[in-house]
Amino acid sequence: MSVISKSVYVFAFIDAFITAFIAYLSFALIAPSLKSLLVAMFIFAAVMLIMLNAKGFYQIRRYGFKDIYRLFEGIFIAGFIAGVMVIPVIKGFAVVLILYDIALIFAVSLISRAVYELYKRFFKPVKNILIVGAGQNGKFIAEEIQSRPELGMKVVGFLDDNMNTIAEEDSSIPILGLTYDSEAVIKDNNVDMVIIAVKSRMDSNILTDLVYGIPLGVKVWRMPTFYAHITRKLFVSKMSVNWLFYDYVRPKHIMYSHIKRILDKIAALAILIVTLPITLIAALGIKISDFGPIFYTQTRIGKFGRPFKMLKFRTMYQDKVDKGFDDDLVEIAHNDKRIMPFCKWIRKFHVDDIPQMLNILKDEMSIVGPRPVREDVYDENRENIRYWECRNWVRPGWTGWQQVNVNEPIPEERLRYDLYYIKNRTLIWDIAIFFQYLAKLLSGKCK
């Protein structure tokens, strides 16, 4: 897959190398064998990469001082998780040694990132972008690039064969010529990348002009693909359902689906076991609060539009819950009078969603996927929003890509994130989304 910037891969490699090397220095003298040492190094590197990815350190985005703490938090958590995992491998556990590893990994990782930020700010050359098509889509992607200085890109101008567009230009970015002029424009403006944002299907003459006019070495992107890379969601209005469908039925996704079902059930059982003390306290508190039912079920739409009963802990007084209530779509204030006082912490940390592990065990849901909606919401959005039913090509999730990015999206925005997930889903990414959600959940930032 093409990438906007290779720096994220470089950082992943550097972090893995730093972690593995420091683990080698720590365990070289106490590991019972070379094999044990290599396994310990691999565990530390893998856990660190998963955690830092969950914390968003392998995304092209703006970084600030608060990210220093987030980096330390991610390394600290990953260090202790990896330390516990290597106990059977190295036949021991030393808290002092783990703390030493965490401190050293954090220091070296922080220095490497500081050096890169200095390089990016003062030495890294800005990439010049040329956009083919000065219409609505072209100006939209130009605004997206301008609003993201972390990309290190500058839109030098447009190419457009529509003379009406040129005459009615209302953008601060100039139109530099026709597609016929592409070779000269690219050379004169030192263009590094061309984005094709022509709204309608290009005719053969435009394609010929671009083939002859774009020199080798200049990267070419289709606007929807470029938009997906920088925003991590799909530009639905420019999407073809065939394009999404062929990705959905690829053989690797068929195998992925079988493996994911197994991992979903393992994860669901593990979550039920680990959270058993919390769920028992929650169930008892709910029962005592108003002596009503502990669970609340509601019909939601699952894979391929099949309805199922989604299970939750009831957090509102039984006589105050509207039948059509859907707290996946409607924001509920913390002080809402319908919420039982005891249940405010249950909602804050989404303990009420834990019973959905039973839905996962019944193959009605998955750990990661688009959140399920009520039948009437599904029908309404299917009528009014193009491709809405495509989000039901996979099992709905306990959490999902949209949940770790935005808390309260409009339906169209939710669809963009969900379809991006469906198109690009992998087991590694599912694990990363799961850990991102847990980090957000434990911080109390989920709504």
Strand and helix map with partners:
Elements: H1 7-27, H2 34-54, H3 66-85, H4 87-90, H5 95-122, E1 127-132, H6 136-146, E2 153-159, H7 163-167, E3 175-177, H8 182-188, E4 193-196, H9 204-213, E5 219-222, H10 223-231, H11 241-248, H12 251-274, H13 276-290, E6 295-301, E7 307-313, H14 344-348, H15 356-361, E8 366-368, H16 375-384, E9 397-399, H17 411-424, H18 427-442
Parallel strand pairs: 1-2, 1-4, 2-3, 4-5, 8-9
Antiparallel strand pairs: 6-7
Short description:
The chain has 447 residues and is an alpha/beta fold.
Number of helices: 18
Strand order of the largest sheet: 3-2-1-4-5
Shape: globular
Q: Residue share in helices?
A: 40-55%
Flag low-confidence runs: none
Q: What would you call the structural class? A: alpha/beta
Count the E strands: 9
Largest sheet: 5 strands, parallel
State the order of secondary-structure elements, H for helix, E for strand. Answer: HHHHHEHEHEHEHEHHHHEEHHEHEHH
Q: What does this entry look like structurally?
A:
The chain is α/β, with parallel strands linked by helices and 447 residues long. It folds into three domains: 116 residues, no CATH class; 105 residues, NAD(P)-binding Rossmann-like Domain (Rossmann fold), CATH 3.40.50; 197 residues, no CATH class. Helices cover 52% and strands 10% of the residues. It contains 18 helices and nine strands. The strands form three sheets. It has a five-stranded parallel beta sheet with strand order 3-2-1-4-5, with helices on both faces. It has a two-stranded antiparallel ribbon with strand order 6-7. Helix 16 links the parallel strand 8 and strand 9. Helix 11 crosses helix 17. The longest helix is centred in the first third of the chain and has 28 residues. The protein is globular, with a radius of gyration of 25 Å. The model has no long low-confidence stretch (mean pLDDT 85).
